[in-house]
Inverse folding.
């Protein structure tokens, strides 16, 4: 009797904290026969190093998928549930490519509907290479998206701060008011709306 190979998938997100833009999640199944040196939490890597590792992950992984939850979904659901939604979408994308036996998710909680056994691992992006790879893909995809969105929503500095709450972003928000990319459920954005 043929037994199906069951794969382990790592999952992480980028963009929980920003005031603008989607939250992005990636799911990655690494190939044990094609290891990638230097995988760790994307926040611990320089932008240049992340940009060098991302194509290697895409090239050598057995499967990967990147998904988003929109600003509207963040504002409707809240950031925690929207993050879980993006994670579930990423897992679904990978599950369509291979049969999963275990899902490892960075953090201390799990989305409700997952296709197999799953484990939440605090600081998993530092200890589990598949989670590290997911962290890097989520971060590089979201950063590139925010750079693209900077062109259609100029003046806020999205290409520089990627939607995070910097002093320059706060100043632009006060001066210009929120854009359609801004999360109105986040306090600084709400305050700018009320001030406007």
């Amino acid at each position: 009797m043929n037994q199906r190979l069951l794969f382990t998938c790592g999952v992480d997100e980028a963009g929980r904290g920003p005031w603008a833009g989607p939250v992005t999640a990636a799911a990655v199944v690494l190939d044990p026969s094609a290891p990638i040196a230097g995988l760790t939490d994307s926040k611990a890597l320089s932008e240049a190093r992340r940009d060098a590792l991302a194509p290697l992950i895409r090239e050598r992984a057995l499967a990967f998928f990147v998904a988003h939850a929109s600003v509207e979904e963040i504002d409707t659901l809240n950031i925690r549930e929207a993050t879980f939604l993006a994670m579930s979408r990423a897992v679904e994308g990978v599950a369509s490519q291979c049969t999963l036996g275990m899902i490892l998710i960075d953090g201390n909680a799990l989305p409700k509907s997952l296709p197999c056994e799953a484990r939440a691992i605090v600081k998993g992006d530092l200890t589990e290479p598949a989670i590290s790879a997911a962290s890097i893909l989520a971060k590089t995809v979201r950063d590139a998206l925010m750079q693209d969105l900077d062109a259609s929503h100029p003046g806020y500095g999205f290409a520089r701060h990627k939607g995070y709450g910097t002093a320059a972003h706060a100043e632009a928000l006060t001066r210009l008011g929120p854009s359609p990319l801004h999360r109105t459920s986040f306090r600084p954005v709400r305050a700018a709306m009320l001030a406007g």
Residues 43 and 136 are 8 Å apart (CA to CA).
